[in-house]
Amino acid sequence: MNVIKVITIIGARPQFIKASVVSRAFKHCCEDIVEVLVHTGQHYDDNMSKVFFDELGISKPDYNLGVGGDSHGQNTGRMIEKIEDLLLVEKPDWVLVYGDTDSTLAGALAAVKLHIPVVHIEAGLRSFNRSMPEEVNRVLTDHIATLLFAPTELAVSNLVNEGNEGIERSKIHLVGDVMYDAALYFYKKAEQKSKILETLKLSSKEYVLATIHRQENTDDKHRLSSIINGLSQSSVPVILPLHPRTKKQLNLFGINIGTPIQVVESVGYLDMIMLEKNARAIATDSGGVQKEAYFYQVSCVTLREETEWVELVEQGVNHLAGYDENIITKSMTAKFPHTCKKDLYGDGSAAHRIVNEILFTYLVG
Question: What is the pTM of this model?
Answer without folding.
Answer: 0.90
